[in-house]
Write a structure and sequence with these properties.
Helix content: over 70%
Number of helices: 3
Radius of gyration: 15 Å
Number of strands: 0
Oligomer: single chain
Shape: flat
Strand content: under 5%
Largest sheet: none
Distance between the termini: 34 Å
Length: about 80
Amino acid sequence: MGVFVSIFTLVSVNIQAFARETISKNLIATVNLCLLTCIATLLGFVMLIVNKGKKKWFNAVYTVFLILLAASTIILALLKN
């Protein structure tokens, strides 16, 4: 359920932001990356529960992916464009 809410939020925020054009592109990108991180976290937890932690390569790739998403979100949020 949380995944669907996150995806709906991503779509509605983008529609409102581009319709009004009052929000900076940096803020839109930061919000999109933050929501993408949330969606990836929720989907990863579902996959971990389904796989029961049996696939170690998935755990490693998932961890690296989340770290990259979080780092890019923080870096983009700190930029002042």
